[in-house]
Amino acid sequence: MALTACSEQRDAAAARTTSVTGLRGTPLDEPLAKPSFVLTRTDGHAYDFARETQGKVALLFFGYTYCPDVCPLHMANIAAVLARMPWEEREAIRVVFVTTDPERDTPERLGTWLAGFDPEFVGLRGAPDTVTAIQKSLGLVPASRQPNADSSKEYLVGHAAQVIAFGRDNVARVVYPFGTRQDDWAHDLPMLARREGDTPAAAAHHDTQSSVSVLERAIAPAVIVSGTDSARGALYLTIQAGPMGDTLYAVTPIGGGVASLHVSTASAGPVTMKSTRSIAIPAGSLLAMQPGGVHVMLDSMPRRLVPGSSIPLELELSAGKKVIVSGTVVTYAELDSVLALARAAFVPR
Amino acid sequence: MRWWCSAQNTAWTWGWRPYPGVWLFVIAVGFAIWHWNRVGARRAGNPPEPLHPLSVLGLLVLWLALDWPIGALGAGYLASIHMLQFQLIALIAAPFLLRGISRDALALLRDESAIARLVKRLTAPLPALVTLNVSVLLTHIPGIVDSLMATQIGSFLIDIVWLLGGLIFWWPIVVSVPERPRFVPALQIGYLVLGLMFSPVMFGVSAFLVYSQHPLFGTYELAPPIGALTSKNDHVIAGLLMSVGGSVIAFIALSKIFFDWSKREG
Fold first, then answer.
1. Do A239 and A281 touch, CB atoms closer than 8 A?
2. Contact A344/B at CB under 8 A
3. Could you report the per-residue pLDDT of A278-307, keeping only the tens digit for each?
4. How far apart are the C-alpha atoms of B197 and A50, rounded to whole Å?
């Protein structure tokens, strides 16, 4: 994923050609599951990204209002195209802008700046560590402030230049780098709104599966820990069950590999690990996987689990409901802090 | 340091930037006129004349159009300023520069040399009309503009095409050599009306700029924004400028032709 230091580097190549999806956006090597995170809107209210954008096309972008080029251009071009779209299609699209410069992007400034493009655009703020964790979970290089020797207030923030487009099936298959023109947006946004970018299976199952499942539970970002360059790892999930309770039956890495549910016990002797067919989550309770407890073992992954990368996973829960989540690969040294961050972003309902 | 203005991937600032290629080019154009006049005067046995004030004005307009800030804004930030550049170079600077060519210098074109024959053919009204319109069309095709404006040499090429197109277009109106007795004032007025006021090419480009759903030129659509002007509105202004600006300039020129004609006849 490209990182741009605003006004220094730009993704020159516009996505002018159509991919196998028929979209002009740049196809991702592997589909990206919609992350689950909660940040603060410019009006001060919490915004649960996964829940608020459920069943909608979500255009997610990380930037800042003082950005001299990439951010205002992306927002202006998307707004210009949305303004010309019919209401039914436009209503199916959410634009979410997460600031990477919360110090200067006050809620007032962020809100006013976004409203200048489109009052419907959602501006989100969060603690820098949380925003960093979200970017990492999406495989983005986290934004970084570029020091300015002349002024502590006037600085640039290097940040990913692409807009990630999650389809209505909660999976991103394309991103839109800097250089994407209005013509490209006008081609792709109606297609995304009409689910033409979704896989046939996902589009067909949308109403009966994923939308229902997320409403009934909350899932924090998944964390995968792995040794250096290993194709094996341990996955930790945090799931808040709804009022009916829930059961986790299976985890399937979308790009290939094997996942198995495990329970570790350490009572009266050394830690032992045994596989289990399912994990029950009582009504209203929290399943918080952690080292030495319940976890998921990943094996025979098609690619080495490189820290910083993300792996889309499909969870099979009660009544055959399936949810796609994104797992971020971290090192053992990072595990505790990243797990804490992931849970900090988690708001049980 | 850059020698000519071209599109850059940096945010616009009002900090002055030097473009030495522009200075050298304007000086070279001025020198060419001065030298031509000097050679013409020597051949005619007359003392050399100073540059005509309108010619100096033409050089000044040319410099303003090519140098910072207009040149830099037009090359990589605003389509409307790019259009202003076109008007300044092809429609204002060009006729003024032609006014600076002395009678003695023009007399050099009365012989049957290859250059004289080429000038005569190129500056005949119909070829001149076609030349300007083709140059306008070619230099406003999105793919060409986006490719050329990204480099200094490409941007230079567009500016040169505009200047040459303007010089050729205005030649039969401003310059009396070669003599064209059948190109009477009424026809000159028609020439300006057809070439600038109701040119199908200019109207077409203008209409595309104003009415296209999305901005035509990627260079300006993806340029770091300046103020609150959207790229679409910038393109609309560019289209209006092409249509209205060309008409205004044509109106001024044909008015002068008309009143000079009336004075002569009356």
1. yes
2. no
3. 888 887 778 888 888 889 999 888 888 877
4. 57
**pTM greater than the 0.80 cutoff:** no
A237: closest CA among A256, A253, A254, A220?
A220
Q: Does A213 touch chain B (CB under 8 A)?
A: no
Asked if A68 reaches chain B (Cβ–Cβ under 8 Å), the answer is yes
pLDDT in tens, A115-169: 999 999 999 999 888 899 889 889 899 999 988 777 777 899 999 999 999 999 9
Question: Which residue has better confidence, A340 or B112?
Answer: B112
Query: Which own/partner pairs from B143-149 qualify as long-range (CB within 8 Å, at least 24 positions apart)?
Result: B145/B217, B145/B219, B146/B217, B146/B218, B146/B219, B149/B6, B149/B7, B149/B75, B149/B76, B149/B82, B149/B219
Q: Report CA torsion sign: A88, A207, A41, A135.
A: negative
This complex has an ipTM of 0.87
Indicate which of A4, A64, A69 best probes the interface with B, i.e. most B CBs within 10 Å of its own CB. Answer: A69
B230 and A81: CB-CB below 8 Å? no
Measured between beta carbons, the chain B residues lying within 8 angstroms of A6 are 11
Question: Closest approach of chain A CAs to the CA of B215, in angstroms?
Answer: 8
CA A55 vs. chain centroid, Å, equals 15
pLDDT of residue A333: 83
Check CB contact under 8 Å for B224 and A7: yes
